[in-house]
Fold this sequence. Notes:
Low-confidence stretches: 1-50
Order of helices and strands: EEHEEHHEEEHEEEEEEEEE
CATH superfamily of the largest domain: Rieske [2Fe-2S] iron-sulphur domain
Largest sheet: 4 strands, antiparallel
Helix content: 25-40%
Distance between the termini: 69 Å
Strand content: 15-25%
CATH class of the largest domain: Mainly Beta
Structural class: alpha+beta
Radius of gyration: 37 Å
Amino acid sequence: MWRKLGAATTYGWTSPKCGVKYAAFQGLATALRSSAGGAKVARGTVTATTDHHGHHHGDVTKRDFLFIATGAVGAVGAALTAWPFIHQMNPDASVRALASIEVDLAPIAEGQEVTIKWRGNPVIIRNRTKAEIEAAKAVKMDELKDPIARSAVAKDGDPATDENRTLKDHEQFLVMMGVCTHLGCVPQGDNPAKEFAVVEGSHKVGGWFCPCHGSHYDTAGRIRKGPAPENLWVPVYAFISNTKIRIG
């Protein structure tokens, strides 16, 4: 309870328990009150003086405490209220599962390829023949329309060598996005007659052809002819066993 301590305008809080709480809090607002009335703090007791306007600064101390406490509770409450709305914007389990995909390569025989879907886009996976690999490695960089690897398994800006577009010890498998870099069509693997195959020297060695506007890609997925400006992109992938890869 409050009691008169002597002067007509000076009071103190006599409860030691409450006095300790006020004294601990009062240190936070000392700078604010010191210019307004010269409050004095003592452990166990809060004294208050009245300035020439008649304001009791002991009351200001209590208001400060209530103001800060109310603000803190309000901030916590707002955060707890907003969390369900924030959480519902996170992708669900099915979306997160599509961020990466595992592919078994065992059924893909030499000279065959499959096209799978990853993140809504086609990905071409080909088990290349020795002739296709040799043809890709024999190409000189100054012969390429796009000399940049465009490969997530190499460093940015690395040259478009066959080695930078495949993984070491697994060079027979070429993994690349099946999206033409011209207007986004899907390039087609060369047919058995090699009607649209890339010609290296005097030999038709295969590759991919985009029927929309006639872009030709070689056996490493590099643009060799037509309007496409860049090589087919190689996504990030890794072997998790001798016959299985994870894309993404």
